[in-house]
Amino acid sequence: MEIGGLQKLSLIDYPGKLACVVFLIGCNFRCPYCYNSNLVLPEKIKKQARIPEKEFFDFLKKREKILEGVVLGGGEPTTHNDLSDFIKKIKKLGYLVKLDTNGSNPEMLKKLISKKLIDYAAMDVKQNQKSKTKNQNDNVKFKKNKYEKAVGVKVNLKNIQKSVKIIKDSKIDYEFRTTIVPGIHAKEDIIQIAKEISPAKRYFLQNFKPKTTLDPKFEKIKPYSEECLLEIQKAVAPFFEVCQIRI
Ligand code: SF4
């Protein structure tokens, strides 16, 4: 497994659990506002230091009595064919496993859930699937769906829909979440996302943080105000059992 980073302790990434976060290298999306371009862009991946698997598992063995869970983030963990073997080794040590995913690989998601390899799934819903936008710089009339604008590549939206359904139909704990980025999302977009994924247990609205982004233009974007997020939350909260803002 290609491990690009390890956060040894997190109190927030696995709800209710003390966990570490392991960052896996590689992603099939190119979200322009991504904070982890070192795990996404091939030219940066080449320069990214790796943590040997042995070092990671030695760490887990040492923390067995302190940590409860391991969060698999990235990058996109489901791009790794050896993910299930990697998780089996983590579970053998008694840890709970949370998977952070962009939902593009429903087959793997289904397999991991059916083999009881994940205990919590957090799926990023990047945009709604309905709206279309025109690329105005293009002479040829070119229609690009908003999801593709949000993730920077062509997307099979059926896979996204399937992942949402697999997660909701499963017995595992889960959340959906959207990082709300000005220029990508308006209030109406989030309301449409809510309609598409509801009814569901938990939906988190994450505020965009203009730190190092995959597309440097996004570093100049001013995030939505707390007031604005509260207004969005008020509009979508009725669709979910829990709907909260993460600043
Ligand atoms: S934000 Fe987008 S590009 Fe970055 S790791 Fe997540 S899915 Fe991949």
What does this structure look like?
The protein has one domain: TIM Barrel (Alpha-Beta Barrel), CATH 3.20.20. The chain contains 8 helices and 10 strands. The chain has helices at residues 42-47, 53-62, 83-92, 106-114, 146-151, 157-169, 187-197, 226-236, and strands at 3-10, 19-24, 69-73, 96-101, 120-124, 132-134, 143-145, 173-180, 200-207, 240-246. The strands form 2 sheets. The protein has an 8-stranded mixed β-sheet with strand order 1-2-3-4-5-8-9-10, covered by helices on one side. A hairpin with an 8-residue loop joins β1 (3-10) and β2. The radius of gyration is 18 Å and the shape is globular. The chain binds iron/sulfur cluster (SF4). Iron/sulfur cluster is lined by residues 27, 29-31, 34, 36, 40, 74-76, 102.
User: What is the percentage of strand-forming residues?
Assistant: 15-25%
Q: What is the second-level CATH architecture?
A: Alpha-Beta Barrel
Strand order of the largest sheet: 1-2-3-4-5-8-9-10
What portion of residues is helical?
A: 25-40%
Structural class: alpha/beta
Radius of gyration: 18 Å
**Unreliable segments of 5+ consecutive residues:** 138-142
How many strands in all? 10
The count of domains is 1
The outline comes out as globular
CATH class wording: Alpha Beta
Provide key terms for this protein:
247 residues; alpha/beta; TIM Barrel; 8-stranded mixed beta sheet; two-stranded antiparallel sheet; 8 helices; 10 strands; globular; binds iron/sulfur cluster
